[in-house]
Please model this.
Amino acid sequence: MADFFTDVPGRIAVAGTDPGDGLGFRVYDPDRIVAGRRMEDQLRIAVCYWHSFNWPGSDIFGDGTFDRPWLGATDDPMAAAFAKQDAAFEFFQKLGTPFYCFHDVDMAPAGSTLEESRANLDVLVDRAQEKQELTGVRLLWGTANAFSHPRFAAGAATNPNPEMFAYAATQVRNALRATHRLGGENYVLWGGREGYETLLNTDMRQENDHLARFLELVADYKRSIGFTGMLLLEPKPQEPTKHQYDYDSATIHGFLDRYDLLDEYRVNIEVNHATLAGHSFHHEVAYALGNGLFGSIDANRGDPQNGWDTDQFPNSVEELSLGMYEIIRSGGFTTGGFNFDTKLRRQSMDRTDLFHGHIGGIDTLAQSLLVAEALIDDGVLDAGRTARYADWNGTLGRKIFEETTTLDSIADEATSTNLDPHPVSGRQEYLENEVNRVIWSTT
Ligand code: XUL
Ligand code: CO
Model:
C-alpha cells in the first residue's frame, strides 16, 4: 500500500516536541492529565471521512481544487473506495487521534440496487475492521447519508412518499448494523432534508409523526441487535432545507418528549449549527447537559460574517472554552467526543493542509480543555452561580415549592409583609473579566 501523505513521514509530534514546521502539536499531549483524565480520553477526537477524504474541494460555483490522488485513482468504484480507505487510515494514524466517523456512502459506493449497496458496505466494513485492529483507531459514530441523492429531495423519513421512508429505513438499518460491527460508540442521525421548503405543500404535523415513527423503529432495531452505543440526533436550523425540524437542542427535547422517545436519543451538537440557530455553542451545550440530552460534539465553527455552514476548523479558545467548561464540570464525555466535521478552504489544496487544519483545531480544543480545568479549579463561576440562587434555599424559596402553597398564599404573605425586593447586580462584566483572567493565564 503506497503512502498518500508523503510530506508527513510519521506520527505528528505531541506538545513539547514540536519540530517547528507547523506539523507538530503545540498543546495537545494525549498523556497529559487534565481534570482527572488523559487529554486524549477527555477530548476523544474523531476525524470525519466525508469532508476529509470524499470531498474534492468543489463548491456550488466551481469544481474540485484539492490534490486528492485517491479520488481519481481508478474507474472501478470499489478499488477507488479501497484507495480512499487506505488514505483515511494513513491519515488517522499519522495524526494520532483515536476515532473517526463515516456515512455509509462515504465509505462504500452505492450500488445499483439496495442489495448491492449493502454488499459493497459489508466489504468495506470488513476492511475497516482489519484496519481498526491494525492501527488501534476506533469508530466514534457511523451514520447514513439520506439527503444527497435526488430521491431524498423532499426528505427521507418525512418524505410524502412512504417508499422513500422505506428506502431510508433500509439504509439506516444497514449503516447501524455496520456501526455495530465496527464497535461504534454512537450512531448519528442528521435530518438534513427532514424539514420543508414551503408550507404551501407541507403538513408539518404529519411529517413529524413520520419522523417519530422512523426514530422509534431505529431505536427498536438498535435493541434487537444488541447495539449499546448511543443514538444521537444532530440539530441544525436550516440548510439545505429552509426549515429543519431538528432546529436546536430545545426543539429536539420537546419533540422527543412529545413522542415518548426521551430515553432513546441524545444530541450531537455542532458548533456552527448552534450559531446558525441564533445560539452560542455554550448555550446549546448547557441546555443539553441541563436536560439529560448531551451526547457528542461536531467541533466545526462558522464564519461570523456569513450565514451558512462553512464547517471551518475551530480556532477560537474564547468560543470553545465555556462550552468545554460545562462539559468537563458535568463529568466529561461518556460515549461522545469531538468530531471534526470540518472542511478546508477551497484554496487549501495540498494534502498537507489537511494536517494543518486538524492540528490547529485539536490544539484549540486542547487549550480550551486546559482553560476549562482552570475555570473549575478557580471556582469563580460556580461560586457566583451558587451565591446568585442561594435564597432559594431560604424560608421563602423552599416554601414556594411546598405542596400547600398557592398563588394566593404567596400573594397574601407578600402583601402582609409589605414585600419590597431590591435587585442586585448580575455582575456580567466582572464575570467576563474573571473568565478572561483565567483564559489569559492558562498554560
Ligand atoms: C451537515 C452535518 C452532517 C452531519 C452528519 O451540516 O453536520 O455532516 O454531521 O450527517
Ligand atoms: Co455535523
Residues 383-441 form one domain.
